[in-house]
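Blinded run. Sample ID left blank on purpose so nobody reads anything into the name before looking at the predicted structure. Input follows.
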Amino acid sequence: MSRTVNVNEEIIVVSHGEEDTGKLAMLGANGKFHKSVIPEIEDLQEQVTEEITERTEADKQLQSNIDAETSARISADQQLQGNIEAEVTARVAADQDLQNQVTAEITARLNADEVESTARVSADQNLQEQVDVLNNKNAFSNVVVNGITIQADSQEDTIELEAGTNIELTADTANEKVTIAVTGKVASAEQADSATTAESCTGNAATAAKLETARNINGVAFDGTGDITITQVNGKTIATTDQIFDQKIYIVGSGSGSDSYWRKWSNGDMEIFGYTAAVVGTVGAVSFPITLNEVKMFLPSQVGAGWANGYTLRPIDVTTTGFSYNWDAFNTEGLGKSCMIAYHVIGTVTV
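Blinded prediction complete.
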């Protein structure tokens, strides 16, 4: 607030301390106040005093508002800090719970794989025993003799050859064959009734070295002059021992460690499952529990990122003994966080 007082004489400001601030005095020629300006001076002084009082009250109110705002902000900051600490605690607990779930899942899968491997090894052993039984058996399905089919009743059935009159059977176990020959006198020959010896008979029956009419044995003509070889039974080729079983690929061995499980296949393939602890953004290396001859397939994955993560796992230098890894970063979120790296590798080993 301001006000101008117009006078003819010179106006000066006289200050004797804080209580005199703003007072105006007009001096005349004799150095005294002119009475005509005294009311104006007093009115101006009152206005200045009121202005100072109002400003003092406003300053006090402003300071009170500032103090209240400061107190409210301090309280809000404390509440925000409490909320942040509670959120951090909750996220740490959630990350730990997730890590426990991942560990439990990996353990369960390793146990399940071990149970399955044990069951498969047992099944393979049982199958191998059956194969061994088949390898030690001379199997047949059907045998046709003079148009009559003799059918096996079981997989381990035995066919028996019985010698008839004047027929001699000689078994050759070393060469796995049977020799069929004519022996003695032929009772049905006309000459045999009156002859005293077989040599006195005439015709083919005199020596019995050859049948007059050849007979078919399983489709092969036999006249007694030589051995015959049976290669088919009921129109089908007799299989050799190594053709009886068409071998399939199966597990021949397995094992596990604290952080890995492996299984070896009959074709020479080796399959490895494993995991390792890692820190996001930190370079590391992992060794396979078994050294491979070559790597056919390698599949890594990051496990346990239950938080904002700006990093992607990047495997490098995959060899027959292990691999190294690094990270591709989109931003710095997740840097320094603990996680798990799981991997699945298929390669070959010497059978």
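Unblinding after everyone has recorded impressions. Confidence is low (pLDDT under 50) at residues 1-26.
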